[in-house]
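Quick start: read one record
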Amino acid sequence: MFVIIIFALLLGYSNARGLTVSFKYAIASFAPQTPQLVWQIEADDPCQSITLSYPKDLKNACYITRVKEVIKCQLSLPYTKRGCYKLKPIKIASNYPFGLVSVWSYIQPNKVVYVYPSIIKTSNQKHQNLVANNTDEGTEKHKGDDEFESLITHLPEMGLQRISWKHYAKTQQLLVKQFSDFKSADAQFDFNLVTGDTEERLGQLCFLVCQAFESDINYSLKLPNNLIACNSGKLHHQRCLEALSLVGDDNE
């Protein structure tokens, strides 16, 4: 029996030798969905029976039967409530061969992971109309035909697309339709202007922020003790969602 255990230990360490586990990035979630961590696992030689697990959460552990060259895996975390969570040490273990021995190590990612508020469709018609109006006007703006303003004399570099042929038929003048450079009002989302308890308000603001991001419009976000200036784009969207997650947050 002693010989078998020694042999199993040698096989276990040999199996894990040359294994490289790297943390890539975290995937935030909207409550009550769980966030995930993406890992890259490499092995110089085929490696078997690898487990990645989070402290006190074997239910969501990531089991990998065999690693050959490079693979990626996603480890779900046990967080379902809105907040910002500092990551705890991740255990990497191998129970090869036959579960007789266990070889393990820990990785401590110096990162946090966010659980955003649940998305709740707002009943605030003013906010909904503001996003809708900005979306419509923004679409027209991208097409370049927002609001008709006046007729101007045609120049060679203008092309023929906007010539007013109706006026040409009357006056024999080539006139071009000029449209105002219309810019719609920026959307402003305010914690105090939505109704419900804290989580309901944050959920409605989360809905509005996501809707504004998808519509590619400028918006600002006013929260208790925090004001995010008007902007647009992916980074602004992420910053707003993270700010919503942090309202009254005391998670570790």
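Residues 125-143 form the longest helix (19 residues).
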